[in-house]
Amino acid sequence: MNEPEETAGKARAPAQADPDIRWSGLTHVGRFRPNNEDSFLDLRFDGHEVSYLGKTGQSSLAGADYVFAVSDGMGGAKSGEFASRIAVDRITRLLPRSFRLSAAGMSSDFQDVLTELVSFIHTDLVNLGLSYAECAGMGATLSLCWFKPGWVYFAHIGDSRIYHLPGHGPFSQLTHDHTHVGWLRRSGKLNEREARVHPRRNALAQALGAGNQFVDPHIGAVSSGPGDRFLICSDGLIDGLWDRRIEELLRTGPSPGEQPDAVRRLVDEAVQESGRDNTTALLIELPAAAGGGPGP
Fold first, then answer.
1. What is the DSSP code string of 60-126?
2. Does residue 40 sit within a domain?
3. Cβ-based neighbour number of residue 287 at 10 Å
4. Counting Cβ atoms within 10 Å, is residue 52 exposed (0-12), middle (13-18) or buried (19+)?
5. Cα–Cα distance measured from residue 105 to residue 213, given in angstroms and rounded to the nearest whole number
6. 127 forms bridges with which residues in the sheet?
7. Which domain covers residue 83, as residue numbers?
8. Is the distance from CB of 115 to CB of 108 less than 8 angstroms?
9. Which of 76, 132, 184, 199 has the most crowded CB, counting CB atoms within 10 A?
10. pTM listed for this prediction
């Protein structure tokens, strides 16, 4: 899923006359990195089949679940790229199975399913790191959103992020950065400006693999409805854009002559402002009725 500049999925779900869900994803290698260690996933599944979605599309939530995820690999050489691809590949294998078990009344709730998923990916990466010298120490972040009618379940580990912009309500970061600097900011000991320049801002306290013995993912759920937007992004986007600017770009339309694509605006501006890291953004929207949508 990683190409030098931009990455897309493999297929597109059929468009619906009145879509319940719309998505757009883009990844960029940045201005200084030789390869892209970010991966993203757009997936639709029901009790019968799994479909890889294109980088943009729209569809209906009726009768199917949708999963979107961003993973940022680490480990040097090609192992970081490999780690993020493993993370999204395992999601493709495991979540549809959980869907089928749930339909048969044999599955636990979403917290158990997502915790098991994260644990499985972590164990897989640790074992690969122990088995192959070129994979030693490799790891990955993971931020995942699972869409069902009326709800979004999420799982997160690392310093990629999930943001939520409700149709009517304040913009917020749903996930916790698994860094000491993230903890300092949540504790009120650092503001956003101080956190962005802290010398240990990129030192992860938790990641999948990467020699960690245990992981404690952030698992949660948020109700959703028409007009809501969810942004999943890697830390390259955050490095280039302040939270306030991310919100502005999600709320406002394009400038004259600009492509009407919020994801492209986010990625292009982040790369222009920083570009020191791979930069990935995946925007999922639940379209509002005509005349509705996120307010100012």
1. --TT-EEEEEEEEEESSTTHHHHHHHHHHHHHHHHHHHHHHHHHTT----HHHHHHHHHHHHHHHHH
2. yes
3. 18
4. middle
5. 33
6. none
7. 21-285
8. no
9. 184
10. 0.88
- Is residue 241 within 8 A of residue 173, CB to CB? The reply is no
CATH number for the domain that contains residue 32: 3.60.40.10
Query: How far does Cα 65 stand from its chain's mean position?
Result: 16
Structural tokens at position 109: 């709730």
| Residues 189, 191, 197, 201, CA torsion sign | positive
> Which H or E run contains 25?
strand 21-28
Confidence of residue 292 (pLDDT cuts 50, 70, 90): very low
Mean pLDDT of the chain: 86
Number of Cβ atoms within 10 Å of the Cβ of 194: 13
Lowest mean pLDDT among 69-78, 84-93, 214-223: 69-78
Higher pLDDT, 212 or 153: 153
Distance CA 105, CA 109 (A): 11
